[in-house]
Amino acid sequence: MTGTFVLKILKENVPVTFIYDTLKNMKRISIIGGGISGLAVLHYLKQRLGESAKITLFEREAVVGGTIRSFKHGSSLFEWGPNGFLDNQPATIQLIQELELTDQLIEAQRTAQRRYIQIKGELLVIPAGVLDFIRTPLLPLKDKCSLIAGIFKNNISADRSIYDYVSQRFSRHIAEALVDPFISGIYAGNIKRLHMASAFPKLKRKGFKKARMRSFRGGMGEIIEALYNRYKNHIQTNLEISPGQINAGIIIVAAPAYAAAKIVENLNPVLAGVLGQIPYAPLAVAGLLFKKSSFKKEPDGFGYLIPSKENKDILGVLIESNVYAYRAGTDQIMMRVMLGGAHHPAIINDEPNQILAKAIKEIDSVYGLSDNPIETFVKLWPKAIPQYETNYPQWRQSIAEISAKTPNLYLCANYLDGISFNDCVNNAKTLANIITPSFS
């Protein structure tokens, strides 16, 4: 690539200083956005290119990490965003090994095996085995038969909403009672809008690999801290920047779709228009630290999810100290209450004290409280999770086609090809592999 460019500009009698500056910029890579996607791309590019390219990551906030941040206060730990990941993706495990964090990995505890769905205020155990499935009051006999029969239906297209897919393959009640709360726990979304094939592409492949939930002793923020410490000389924070301000041969925009739309607006207004259409679900996260003695009924298991038909602001409750060790003292319980989502977007208008009041009221209604929490945390995400809605395949194709018309501009974020931590790491590694040959 470089040789062809040099011959071309020499023939056109371009000044030597211009040639030098241009060639120097061609060896520069700028990454805009310091979430896990941007940090992982930085890691893989530095790993592959070393000092052959000048790579800089720009982050507008004071700290990197995006939605991933862990707050330690005394014996408690509060996660702003994701609290863990599944260990079925080799790229993630390899990244952890490369960052020398393997000894900090922890698994979800046995106390987290039991999970619940709340129906009309009552917690019902999600079946974990055949006998549990037969006995569960979650589903009437008719739906249990539909669930078994649906397993053998392999000819139903996933090019439709999750609700329509599950309703046709199993039943409407299964979609509303089981799948709806499960999707709320992942996407905070509306199953009547989310696209089945886009939200769960692995269904089109070889199914799901068995996996364990993992995190780090110090929370998910540990991997962000490790990446920052390794590459801090290549990271600039507190700096909002656009491609027009960058002299680089390659620009990678690793920001959310709504932010990416503003960043590329002058460079590619058509692409900006498409990115700006991608919807996000809002989410409020309330962290509550209690003494164990505060509960009339001690919370057990992983936590519970709430179907949208219950018409509550609350999406679900995670009992963090049951899921992972090092989240609270031995005489304490750490919980996270998720509120809002696509069904209750008005949550973004609530003040922190209102969010806390709703969260505490929910916990009191289920477990009974004799005392208030000893510590509270609130984080409000007006645009938390991108929604892979039924028109997402068209958006995804448009983004690919339009961005291809802007040479050396790349996008890498969780609105493309998966929202999970694992997806972000995988996609960052794939992008680094695409970019690397241009520097050979």
Outline the structure in words:
By secondary structure, this protein is α/β, with parallel strands linked by helices. It has three domains: 2-65 and 217-278 and 388-439, FAD/NAD(P)-binding domain (3-Layer(bba) Sandwich); 139-210, protoporphyrinogen ix oxidase, domain 3, CATH 1.10.3110; 280-386, Polyamine Oxidase, Chain A, domain 2, CATH 3.90.660. The chain contains 16 helices and 17 strands. The strands form four sheets. It has a seven-stranded mixed β-sheet with strand order 8-7-13-14-15-12-16. Strands 10-2-1-11-17 form a five-stranded parallel β-sheet. It has a three-stranded antiparallel β-sheet with strand order 5-9-6. α3 links the parallel β1 (28-32) and β2 (54-58). α3 (36-49) crosses α10. The N and C termini lie close together (9 Å).
Largest sheet: 7 strands, mixed
Largest sheet, order of strands side by side? Answer: 8-7-13-14-15-12-16
Inertia-based shape: globular
Question: How many angstroms separate the termini?
Answer: 9 Å
CATH architecture label name of the largest domain: 3-Layer(bba) Sandwich
How much is the radius of gyration in Å?
A: 24 Å
Helix content: 25-40%
* Number of strand elements: 17
CATH class (first level) name of the largest domain: Alpha Beta
What is the mean predicted local confidence, pLDDT? 91
What's the helix count? 16
Structural class category = alpha/beta
Percent strand equals: 15-25%
- Tally of structural domains: 3
SSE order and pairing:
Layout: H1 2-11, H2 16-26, E1 28-32, H3 36-49, E2 54-58, E3 70-73, E4 76-79, E5 85-86, H4 90-98, E6 105-107, E7 115-119, E8 122-125, H5 130-135, H6 141-150, H7 162-169, H8 172-187, H9 196-199, E9 213-216, H10 221-231, E10 235-236, E11 250-253, H11 257-263, H12 269-275, E12 280-291, E13 303-305, E14 314-318, H13 320-323, E15 332-340, H14 352-367, E16 375-386, H15 392-403, E17 409-411, H16 421-435
Parallel strand pairs: 1-2, 1-11, 2-10, 7-13, 11-17
Antiparallel strand pairs: 3-4, 5-9, 6-9, 7-8, 12-15, 12-16, 13-14, 14-15
Helix pairs in contact: 3-10, 3-16, 7-8, 11-12, 12-15
